[in-house]
Specification:
This protein is an alpha/beta fold. Helices cover about 45% and strands about 10% of the residues. The N and C termini lie far apart (about 95 Å).
Length: about 300
């Protein structure tokens, strides 16, 4: 049995953005946001449900997940496999854009509902040790959340290192699934008792995919591989160029230092030759110091060599 990699854009959207399996997204959102009891999400409406994109149009296809619950609150879920920089600014942009889009022209601001952003990252961007971090707008003086309409949640996959027997929560199981499903050969027994996970694994089973889905999945995987190789090649060339420049600068600096050292040594030798002649003429040491700018120790050592 071969499972698709949920970190692949197409697979992620097929699993979590499937309008026929909304319970998967609901379970994931409740676990990430720690929603229980009266806050628990029971319904979502997908703004951009999964559909197989056409390869030529991939650049224009929105593969992130955008949903709203029965209270009108919005949830943006994005899987980011490569660190392209400025991801925090991107999350702010997406969240603020979703917030503003709720307000038709001429409507009152009171209709605006909270927006939650969830970023699943295959790289690290924060200093926290835990794999999940929640970011709120906090009043620095009172430590209260007076501005409640924005919430950012980031999951950094490299920080998640739990094994199957260490999965203590539904969230742990979702993150393990996202990070490791493609390396599994069967559904682990830890997942068998929960319907949402069985459905997620079933959707991730590539033997049930049609040819177009497999084609797009492979295309995106190869595209990512090519981008990674291009990045590594650029980094390698940059390092080589930097090393070459460093060598050239080092050689240039060494030549300059050598010339400077030779110049100083030549000047001192000339002064010592003058001092040697003055000593032979029985000129006193203090006068020689003034005449040559040599140290008294230099002249005494020179005198000893002449004795």
């Amino acid at each position: 049995m071969k499972f698709a990699d949920p970190k692949n854009d197409l697979a992620f959207k097929k699993i979590f953005g499937n309008k026929h399996h909304k319970n998967i997204l609901i379970s994931f959102l409740n676990s990430v946001l720690d929603f229980k009891d009266e806050k628990e999400i029971v319904y979502v409406e997908l703004a951009n449900p999964y559909q197989v994109p056409k390869i030529p149009e991939l650049k224009e296809t929105i593969l992130d997940i955008n949903a709203t619950n029965k209270d009108g609150q919005s949830f943006i879920v994005e899987m980011q496999k490569k660190d392209l920089g400025d991801f925090t600014k991107r999350s702010l942009y997406y969240t603020s854009k979703a917030y503003v889009s709720q307000l038709p022209k001429g409507q009152n601001y009171t209709i605006l509902k909270k927006v939650y952003f969830i970023g699943i990252l295959n790289f690290n961007i924060f200093d926290n040790k835990n794999y999940i971090s929640r970011h709120l707008i906090i009043n620095q003086e009172t430590n209260t959340q007076d501005l409640e309409d924005f919430e950012f949640n980031f999951i950094e996959l490299p920080k998640f290192n739990k094994e199957l027997n260490e999965l203590n929560s539904i969230l742990d199981k979702w993150i393990y699934f996202i990070k490791n499903a493609s390396s599994l050969e069967m559904i682990p027994q830890e997942y068998n008792s929960i319907e949402e996970f069985k459905e997620a694994f079933d959707i991730a089973t590539q033997t049930s995919w049609d040819q177009q889905e497999l084609k797009v999945y492979e295309y995106m995987a190869l595209k990512e591989f090519d981008e990674l190789n291009a990045l590594k090649t650029a980094e390698k060339k940059g390092m080589q160029k930097g090393m070459q420049k460093g060598i050239e600068q080092g050689i240039e600096k060494g030549i300059k230092q050598g010339i400077e050292k030779g110049k100083k040594e030549g000047e001192k030798k000339a002064k010592l030759d003058v001092a040697k002649n003055l000593l032979k003429a029985d000129v006193d040491i203090d006068t020689i110091v003034i005449s040559t700018n040599l140290t008294k120790a230099d002249i005494i050592n020179l005198k000893d060599t002449l004795s």
